[in-house]
Amino acid sequence: MEDAMTRTDAGPELATELPDEVSTPRDAATDSAKLEVDAAWLGEYLLGRWAEERKASRALASKPEFQFVGDLSLAEHRERVLAQLRLLVENDAVHRAFPVRFGGGDNHGGNIAAFEELVLADPSLQIKSGVQWGLFAAAILHLGTEEHHERFLPGALSLEVPGAFAMTETGHGSDVASAATTATFDEDADEWVIHTPFRAAWKDYLGNAALHGKAAVVFAQLITKGVNYGVHAFYVPIRDADGAFLPGVGGEDDGLKGGLNGIDNGRLHFDHVRVPRTNLLDRYGHVDPDGEYSSPIASPGRRFFTMLGTLVQGRVSLDGASTLASKLALHIAITYGSQRRQFTAGTSDEEVLLDYQRHQRRLLPRLAQTYAMSFAHEEFLDLFDQVFSGASDTPSSREDLETIAAALKPLSTWAALDILQEAREALGGSGFLAENRLTQLRADLDVYATFEGDNNVLLQLVAKRLLTDYARKFAKADAGALAQYVAGQVGEAAVNRTGLRQLAQTVADFGSTARSVGFVRDEDSQRQLLTDRVHTAVAELAAKLRPASKLSAVDAAALFNRYQNDLITTARAHGELLQWEAFTRALAQVPEGDTRQVLTWLRDLFGLGLIEKDLAWYLVHGRLSGKRAEAITAYIDDRLLPRIREHALSLVAAFGLTPELVRAPNASGNEQRRQDEARAYYATLRASGEAPVDEKALKAAKR
Amino acid sequence: MEDAMTRTDAGPELATELPDEVSTPRDAATDSAKLEVDAAWLGEYLLGRWAEERKASRALASKPEFQFVGDLSLAEHRERVLAQLRLLVENDAVHRAFPVRFGGGDNHGGNIAAFEELVLADPSLQIKSGVQWGLFAAAILHLGTEEHHERFLPGALSLEVPGAFAMTETGHGSDVASAATTATFDEDADEWVIHTPFRAAWKDYLGNAALHGKAAVVFAQLITKGVNYGVHAFYVPIRDADGAFLPGVGGEDDGLKGGLNGIDNGRLHFDHVRVPRTNLLDRYGHVDPDGEYSSPIASPGRRFFTMLGTLVQGRVSLDGASTLASKLALHIAITYGSQRRQFTAGTSDEEVLLDYQRHQRRLLPRLAQTYAMSFAHEEFLDLFDQVFSGASDTPSSREDLETIAAALKPLSTWAALDILQEAREALGGSGFLAENRLTQLRADLDVYATFEGDNNVLLQLVAKRLLTDYARKFAKADAGALAQYVAGQVGEAAVNRTGLRQLAQTVADFGSTARSVGFVRDEDSQRQLLTDRVHTAVAELAAKLRPASKLSAVDAAALFNRYQNDLITTARAHGELLQWEAFTRALAQVPEGDTRQVLTWLRDLFGLGLIEKDLAWYLVHGRLSGKRAEAITAYIDDRLLPRIREHALSLVAAFGLTPELVRAPNASGNEQRRQDEARAYYATLRASGEAPVDEKALKAAKR
């Protein structure tokens, strides 16, 4: 295989590879313009399985009372969002995921779908409602038993008891297992003693903690009879009816934040606060009146991850909300870019921004990425629903769900920040005005990159899983077989089992496919390159880390640390592959026709864009020749960008974002009106014969 | 040369190339720890030529009354910053650049140095004072004559007349030449008639326009006797003593923005507003009472660029302020990263964040970049001072200054956003708290990427200059010579003449240098690779764009557009080379010793980081083999990061940012105190014998 794809295998030029192709970007655009995207159909397709729930939530988000307004004080914004939560309750918008007897529908996927759409109204509303019902109430539901549901869920659901989700501590964020708050069982009193031993153990960054919370689900080390059984969740009242802290409870306001200021984040600490034994949410760990601990899950490690796994919906919803914010940003920037004109390009008319190659390069690959995120999220949400509805709730499917969450949440939350920023810059100065929304959305979504699991930490979880799968696969392989694999042999032994589906395709005859005509635009070639990227990197890392098993703990840690960056970039490549596969599967369901053709170009732009971004890897590993690499870039510039540009407005129209959801003046058509007025003015002036002569023309005439 | 550096020339492994080197990252760190950086000396060195002005400005920025406070309403923040401007006047902090007779010192470099330091207090203060004295008053100074100085400067300097700089229009930002506002001369009245013909011609985003401005320097098309002489500047009163618009003047408030809300940005429009003939700031274009136009610069194009060139200081100061904000961000993140512990790495102790490779990869290359930005800015400011003081004011030096401004301002403004964001994420949830300052700074600096010239537009100016220089150089060369050049022949004919100094070094015997021992860490090799990157890209682009001269205007524009992205990435590479050269020149002035050794590693990290970022280009063009490429990454990971990590705190200490300037609780040592307290607690607990037994240990014991 190395022979077939060495770096000196330059291959034919793209022009001769694609004889049936048009020859200039303008020709590509002209041909593409003959196609018509069915934006209405595509819009429904994008809404996916939970279209009804999404539409219901968008109807709420379209109402001014749910929407962000600027220039509120911290206190005013917090009050406004609290009132919006009450409105959600009044609108029966918060119960979907809960049991029927509490007014819910056991509809887990639909609940998240509806919830994430609230980001279009105000991310503070999305996140504060997420704290109340997606974390606080959900912890009661998933970590508690029926007795807890009866006692605590009604108040949580009705918002009679606003609650904090007290997991993170000042000293421990993503490393939940090391939380330092203790819950020690007092047999005599049949009570838990919740205690904060030092400042770093204060619970921190908790929504509802600064002001509105009446209770908290507190994560603490469960200690009984002198044994620490690890982190468990306890229901702890924190404030009385007047809003004063209960005895032993204290706290601080986190104050102003970079965004999400509609949420009253704060700190909590506990000085030997006592709650009844039965306030332990004990689905996964129970303590008898005599202090004996029992659990349905014997392994402390597996128990911990099972408990945390019930809270994966936070990551699901951030992935979805980030995708929605990206859609909104691109709707705004592409609308404006299709109307705004600046500088001339060979004629007296100024050029539309989106006709500039650079502007296409800035926005269209991000449009392709957003489609990939959207299709990947739909599959992710479906798997989440299967697990949480019980339709397919196995340890293996839960583990897959965790891994996919850890792979997709970092990619989409980072992508949203990048896309919001590029959109803001693409609007120039007007992008910096609050009225065009991009800056505020970016400020709010900033923290998505580090909460619900720091992105860099999550990607390491993915890498760990990739290595584990690899090790399982090759447990019986000898060193020689491994070395051969590492040398680049990517045969049928696809190691990557952590896909949205199992990646079972054979990576066959890599070399000859790569040589074929039309290589760069071929779906199978994209798949092979992207898959091989992940497989080979995993195999290389496994080989490099193999000595760790024979080293001391400290030396093994140092060895892992030496490759930490590679581990994370490999996990990222894996996540990108998941997105590409989801896009490709979604594409396969689109009926033959113009829409499918345009979406195929968009998928190709996503896939080839990933390869282009990681080009050095493919070159160093001999997977692409320099000529082929250049052909990919030329294909993007000459074909894909001009073709997709023709349909950019249709592709954002399919996001279905109505004016009430967009609310950005510069995506309203006002720029088009300004341009039309200006052009009409100059046309009239020229026709009048009274236009001033240009000095340059005058000089030329005098010569 | 191609032969010497083909992609199949793998070269020896790094390990054998560097036999005298230590063998693991830990060894590299241990050896490096023996060195000591002289942070005090380095601090003075970084302060540079205008150290006194910087210190004076930092003293002001250290006072609470100049500093940003959170949770102010829009109105309150605007009033606060206006009051701060008055305080600056009282502190004699605004006159430095102005003539002695107005209380100034004709100190152009020192003025900018002092002014940009204000970003440490509040970017709104920096920018609003920039509007008043760096744009409004500076336009009077540079575009007006002595008569204007006498009439208008005293009020502008004293802040008796807050002024707007009315250049940008809603419809035209970076394309100033196309501004649509007109100033038509009325001979009978001896007056200018300032007029806004349509909505897109409203002046927009102007500081001081919404509220405080009493006058404006308005840029408008100068029309007299039926001839349009292009954009000129006019002094136009806009509000009366009570703050009401004068007759014919109207406007709107731009409202809330993504940041910089201490500045009252707004819109202005003019309905046949009359000002005396003498209100034309007529240093570069004069109109007689009989309406005859005259100018010391005959060429309309050169006249326009000369007038705009007098305002380059905006770009200089954004470059400096971005560098300072980057220093502050890294001070905060590296301080915190040196104290914060999370997860264990083979011992019972948790690991310090900055000992993780990923954390080093996130922060240390950005530290190197910030040093490069700092040294490049110092040279840039020096050239600015030479031009504006008249010490070296030639058309050529002005042209160089413009090009360097257009190259450096995009790089540093984008870098600041990237660095502020990475620092914010490196602080986890605490980075999102306003008290740690990173989110607010990022929000404020966001607009730096698009004002004072959109970054993408500026980089195209740089590319244009590179191509022009190339064309001049090869004006007499035949096609064969060009083709040979394009094929990769980088000999003595260095085309890149737009450096901070002329890049006159001979790029000699590229191949044999590349083969030598220690290739990857060699200064000359870095220079050759980085220089060749720019030269070759320019030559390739020149060849691709060569047919344009024979095409119609429309087809030529389409051809340029096809390579617009390449033009911009080439300009970016040129800017990076300027930064690398400035770093290298600054390094040459550092006395032999430990500090120089550590700075050399830092410069290498910057240079090799640039090569790594652009690796695909070097591979595709056969400038590096795959093995060499991998050796660069390994050298960064095994040597440079662990070595520099040992001195990271000293390297940020040299930024000289005192607690009053930093003002971020999590860079104050509080994290260290929390860590110490937590560790002491656990040590005491273990010593007491009363620590709970871990469940896992218990299970192991029971087996």
Automatic annotation (TrEMBL), chains A, B:
Protein name per the record: acyl-CoA oxidase
Residue ranges of every copy of the Acyl-CoA oxidase C-alpha1 domain listed in the record: 309-467
Transmembrane regions listed in the UniProt entry: none
Gene3D superfamilies: Acyl-CoA dehydrogenase/oxidase, N-terminal domain, Butyryl-CoA Dehydrogenase, subunit A, domain 2, Butyryl-CoA Dehydrogenase, subunit A, domain 3
GO molecular function: acyl-CoA oxidase activity; FAD binding; fatty acid binding
All residue ranges annotated as the Acyl-CoA dehydrogenase/oxidase N-terminal domain in the record: 85-159
Domain of life assignment: Bacteria
SUPFAM superfamilies named among the record's database cross-references: Acyl-CoA dehydrogenase C-terminal domain-like, Acyl-CoA dehydrogenase NM domain-like
Ranges where the Acyl-CoA oxidase C-terminal domain occurs: 528-660
EC number(s) reported in the record: 1.3.3.6
Family: Belongs to the acyl-CoA oxidase family.
Subcellular compartments: Peroxisome
Primary location recorded for the protein, binned into one broad class: other
Record keywords, A-Z: FAD, Fatty acid metabolism, Flavoprotein, Lipid metabolism, Oxidoreductase, Peroxisome
PANTHER family to which the protein is assigned, alphabetical: ACYL-COENZYME A OXIDASE-LIKE PROTEIN, ELECTRON TRANSPORT OXIDOREDUCTASE
Cofactor(s) named in the record: FAD
Any Gene Ontology biological process: lipid homeostasis
Disordered as annotated region, ranges: 1-31
Domain Acyl-CoA oxidase/dehydrogenase middle: from-to ranges: 164-273
